[in-house]
Amino acid sequence: MVKTDPAKGEEGAMIGYAEIATHFRRQITDGELNPGDAMPSYKEASEQFGVNRTTIVRAYDILKSEGLVVSRPGKGTTVAARAAIVISGVDRLDRLNRTGRRYGPGEDSTGHRVMRRSVHDVEVCRALEIEPGEEVVIRIRTFRQDGRPTSVGVSVYPPRTVAEVPELAEEGQMDRYFGDLYAERTGREVAKGQRTAHARQASQDEIGALQLNAPAHIAVAVLVTTVTFHDEDGPVGYWEDVYAPGNKIPTA
After folding, report:
1. Is residue 5 packed enough to be buried (19+ CB in 10 Å), middle (13-18) or exposed (0-12)?
2. DSSP secondary-structure letter at 92?
3. Residue 91: how many CB atoms within 10 A of its CB?
């Protein structure tokens, strides 16, 4: 087995500036580095990763362009204020797997609602491979950063998923990711599909949940990301996240 270190990838190749930026980006979004914390100096980071100063400068420049860090003469580089990047949806799952924490610093969710409804939305029916009018469980919540709404999360589950994970139909937050519970109880792993994004007009419910100050006759454009989860027999869940205008979200 090839041994790796912080400066090398899986095959032992020297790490590049993009990988270094990814390393610090995750530390910031995971809450290991908090607003105001000092970033390693160029010299310290060069020694940590075994690369030259130019590589570190390029990595830090990426983080600056993303609004994650700021540099001030004589004070070095520090972590910027939170909410430069909004973590939600499937990205939250990735962070949960890395850290075991549902939320990052300053994050929470509110407005949790659970309902059984007949679904007629063409996109949802197609994604879950169900007939229009079939009853599903819908879970809705608003994610916030330091008390400010950043996105509305909607998850939809077909009857066969709810049969295995009845907690999905109960009020309140889920203690665990539904896919883990489903896999434990069925022996079938849950895989997330490709996340896609599109823009559309926000509904009045979404405008209210995101606390957007917009007259009723004015259309508000929002970015929406969707992803479908599958097991070996087909779709088991559909997630949609609606982001407040002005927020940045990761797309990789």
Report:
1. exposed
2. H
3. 19
Give CATH for domain 89-243.
3.40.1410.10
> Looking at residue 15, what DSSP letter applies?
P
Which amino acid is residue 136, in one-letter code? Answer: V
What are the extents of the domains in the chain?
A: 17-79, 89-243
- Angstrom distance (rounded) from CA 4 to CA 19: 14
Q: Which CATH number does 17-79 carry? A: 1.10.10.10
C-alpha 72: how far from its chain's center? 30
| 186-216 per-position pLDDT tens digit | 999 999 999 999 999 999 999 999 999 887 7
Coil/strand/helix, residue 100: coil
Q: What are the pLDDT digits (tens) for 131-187?
A: 999 999 999 999 998 899 999 999 999 999 999 999 999 998 898 999 999 999 999
Q: Take residue 225 and report the two structure tokens written for it.
A: 């990301």
Distance CA 171, CA 220 (A): 30
Instruction: Give the separation between CA 5 and CA 50, rounded to whole angstroms.
Output: 9
